[in-house]
Specification:
Blueprint (H helix, E strand, L loop, with lengths): L1 H7 L6 H5 L13 H5 L15 E7 L5 E7 L1 H4 L4 E5 L3 H4 L16 E2 L5 E7 L2 H10 L1 E6 L15 E2 L4 E3 L2 H7 L2 E9 L2 E2 L7 E6 L4 E5 L4 H12 L6 E4 L15 H13 L3 E4 L2 H7 L2 E2 L2 E9 L5 E12 L21 E10 L13 H19 L3 H6 L18 H12 L11 E3 L2 E13 L5 E7 L5 E4 L9 H13 L6 E4 L16 H24 L19 H5 L4 E7 L11 E13 L5 E11 L6 H20 L30 E6 L23 H13 L5 E2 L3 H4 L1
Helix pairs in contact: 11-18, 14-15, 17-18
This protein binds dioxothiomolybdenum(VI) ion.
Length: 725
């Protein structure tokens, strides 16, 4: 087929392997690590800006309605207070939707409890906070009884046409084994450690904005759009980001408010959200309700596959948690029905939270697979092995690479999985039931356009520049490694500059695409540098061997450059090869849990993840991503849940004391196996996304282990003690 021919055409996609410098893939520590752990890396709010005012956001105390009047006079006489900004751009244009344009919500309208409606600016933070608390706001509030708040009781609308093949209902009735199960998952918060913050400076013509954001390449467009300022008059800086997990994909109110205030007042303004504000007005992951219908023949081969999900969002928002994303291709079956629907309710915007879609879709699917395995009397690992498709079941595209089977086998072996007949409630230690469970992992591979500039300096060092961000993922590390590998330099000789829109547009950090996308741009730039160097030596680029600062034999790079810097920009645009394949990361989770027979408390004793996600650029940062993902899996399985007041819809648990992310005590020894894989069709550097895969199914493995331990089949996540009992 054509895809195969394209693979065979001359291509540079194996170049990194030819370099043999031993820099790429190595578990090197982060160059930014020492500054971070010593507290000297400046995060957004840390920047010392002279003459800076402090702004505190005021948020709505009604669910839906209009701001009728804001009594600015009531606080303007308070000490230190400079201004009350209630510019309609705060309610109209600042939202966290996604790329490029901030979605328009109607000006002055309130759509959810906790929505920012004004900014109080003062000389000090304490003065601003005091005045913000005392600001009198009058609302025209809609009657609570008219406002849809409950996603279960609100009629949904279909998100798209869905996928329909064959006759699922018939498959269900004619199958040897079938399950028809409904699961619920509750909302999640991103809960990044660094709260949302911005400092804006306006010189009358140009804005300089420090902000904590994931996607500067899009954020600058969103901000220009929200403020009606030209993009070229804005400089966005975000060198260190204390976690994002989706919550900083788009701009939000603190950034817009700081800019509006700085432009109006002619002084720099800093706005830092409180933890409560981050929870109340930064996006949530939607709760879900999911129906799984699985029909299998006597051998456990799926003949019917149904996955229908309901999610929610505010009216007018485009995003719908893509619950069925990997269900589209994970298992083969002829009769298929996949359909997503959205209920419009008045909670804060629902958006991307780490691994949008699979984070909640995969656990439900994998829990249902466990029930099917039990009914069919087939080992759960074996059931999955029997249902791996050889191409995308509905689109027909081949997979770029596919390591699910290897992950299942290697994971089972390393974990010591017992493939004998399974029966719950077989092992007890004191008051604890002990059990094991497993699940597949899957997450789509995303890839984005990206640019980066690489300069080979006359002194023999290299500089990599892009407005790409490092949200704690290791971008500084891997870009230095790619350039070092390509140019024959140790990473100490490669300086990486990120997070400034004056640099070439990167891909931004999101959807696990960052490393493969912007890494490919650095690769392309280095390739061009290699061609220019080869020209100088008078040989073909293929024959050029760059090593330890030499260009072969005794020819030193510094002599070859002869006082001149060489600079090239790399522009990577996915397409030619990528479009012909279905690309995804795959893996397998294995978990051992203990469940207390009196309290219903669940503890994860042991967890193992085996993953295949293309080339590993840095073993240490890649492993850390997997550990982080598995930690999120444990949170989603056992504790994390946004709780809304049923009467007025406000978020009840809006801090880290009440929204329970796992702490060290909750995380057992976690083992990560990275299955060797190269994927030339996924990206020029043969890498796929890594960041999110670790939480795509893991909660399902824990659900299945809970059943094995104590015999409780649970259909609600998180599986808190009250539900286990
Ligand atoms: Mo991710 S949830 O796209 O940062």
């Amino acid at each position: 087929m054509t895809a195969h021919l394209k693979q065979d055409k001359p291509d540079t996609r194996n170049l990194l392997d030819k370099m043999r410098q031993g820099v790429i893939g190595k578990p090197l520590s982060r160059p930014d690590g020492p500054a971070k752990v010593s507290g000297t890396a400046p995060y957004t709010a840390d920047h010392a800006v002279e003459n800076c005012l402090e702004g505190v956001l005021v948020t709505a105390t009604i669910v839906r309605g209009e701001v009728a009047d804001i009594d600015a006079q009531s606080v303007l006489t308070m000490p230190g207070v400079v201004a009350v900004i209630d510019d309609e751009r705060l309610t109209a244009r600042a939202a966290q939707g996604g790329a490029d344009e901030a979605p328009e919500q109607p000006a002055r309208k309130v759509g959810y409890f906790g929505q920012p409606i004004a900014l109080v600016v003062a000389e000090s933070f304490e003065e601003a906070r005091d005045a913000a608390k005392q600001l009198k706001v009058d609302y025209r509030a809609d009657d609570l009884s008219d406002i849809p708040l409950d996603p279960v009781q609100t009629d949904p609308e279909p998100q798209d046409d869905g996928t329909r093949q064959g006759d699922l209902a018939h498959a269900m009735t004619s199958a040897a084994h079938s399950v028809d199960l409904t699961y619920r998952t509750e909302g999640h918060a991103s809960a990044a450690m660094e709260p949302h913050a911005a400092i804006a400076e306006w010189d009358g013509k140009r804005l300089t904005v420090h902000a904590s954001l994931q996607m500067l390449n899009h954020n600058i467009i969103e901000l220009a759009d929200a403020l009606d300022v030209k993009e070229e008059d804005i400089r966005l800086i975000s060198r260190y980001v204390g976690g994002g997990f989706g919550s900083k994909l788009g701009i939000s109110e603190e950034t817009v408010a700081a800019c509006v205030a700085a432009m109006e007042l002619g002084r720099p303004v800093r706005v830092v959200m409180s933890r409560q504000q981050v929870f109340q007005c930064i996006m949530r992951r939607s709760e879900t309700k999911q129906r799984l219908r699985l029909a299998a023949d006597g051998d456990g081969k799926l003949i019917g596959f149904g996955h229908e999900a309901r999610v929610s969002n505010l009216p007018g928002e485009d995003f719908a948690e893509p619950v069925l994303q990997s269900s589209e291709f994970l298992y083969a079956a002829e009769n298929r029905l996949l359909q997503l629907e959205v209920a419009r309710i008045h909670r804060m915007t629902a958006g991307s939270v780490r691994a949008p879609g699979e984070a909640v879709g995969m656990p439900a699917l994998e829990a249902a697979m466990d029930v099917l395995a039990e009914k069919a009397g087939i080992d759960p690992v074996e059931l999955r092995l029997r249902n791996i498709p050889d191409k995308h079941p509905s689109e027909g595209l081949p997979f770029s690479s596919h390591k699910l089977a290897e992950c299942l086998k290697q994971g089972a072996e390393a974990f010591g999985w017992d493939s004998g007949p399974r029966k719950p409630r077989q092992r007890r230690e004191g008051e604890w039931w002990i059990g094991t469970g497993m699940a597949s992992a899957a997450r789509v591979h995303n890839i984005e356009e990206a640019k980066a500039r690489v300069t080979l300096k006359a002194d023999g060092t290299a500089l990599v520049e892009t407005d790409m961000t490092d949200i704690g993922t290791g971008t500084y590390s891997i870009l230095g490694q790619i350039a070092g590998e390509m140019l024959g330099l140790p990473v100490e000789k490669v300086l990486v500059e990120l997070g400034d829109t004056r640099l070439p547009r990167g891909s931004g950090s999101g959807g696990s695409w960052g490393a493969a996308s912007v890494g490919s741009a650095v690769f392309v730039a280095c390739n061009r540098l290699r061609e220019r160097l080869a020209g100088k030596v008078g040989i073909a680029a293929d024959d050029l061997v760059l090593k330890d600062g030499t260009a072969g034999n005794d020819l030193r790079l510094t002599d070859l450059l002869d006082g001149e810097d060489l600079c090239e920009e790399g522009h990577y645009e996915p397409g030619e090869i990528e479009d012909d394949y279905t690309a995804a990361g795959f893996g397998a989770f294995f978990a051992q849990v203990r469940v207390n027979r009196f309290t219903g408390e669940t503890r994860v004793d042991r967890m193992l993840g085996a993953f295949g996600f293309g080339r590993v650029l840095n073993e240490k940062t890649a492993r850390s991503q997997c550990l982080g993902g598995i930690t999120w899996s444990i949170g989603a399985a056992l504790t994390e849940s946004l709780l809304f007041d049923p009467v007025d819809g406000h978020l009840v648990n809006c801090d880290l004391a009440e929204y329970h992310v796992p702490v060290h005590r909750d995380i057992p020894d976690v083992e990560v196996i990275m299955v060797e894989e190269r994927d030339p069709a996924a990206s020029p550097i043969q890498a796929k996304g890594i960041g999110e895969l670790g939480m795509c199914g893991g909660a399902g493995a824990i659900a299945n282990a809970i059943y094995d331990a104590c015999g409780a089949r649970l259909f609600e996540f998180p599986m808190t003690p009250d539900r286990v009992l």
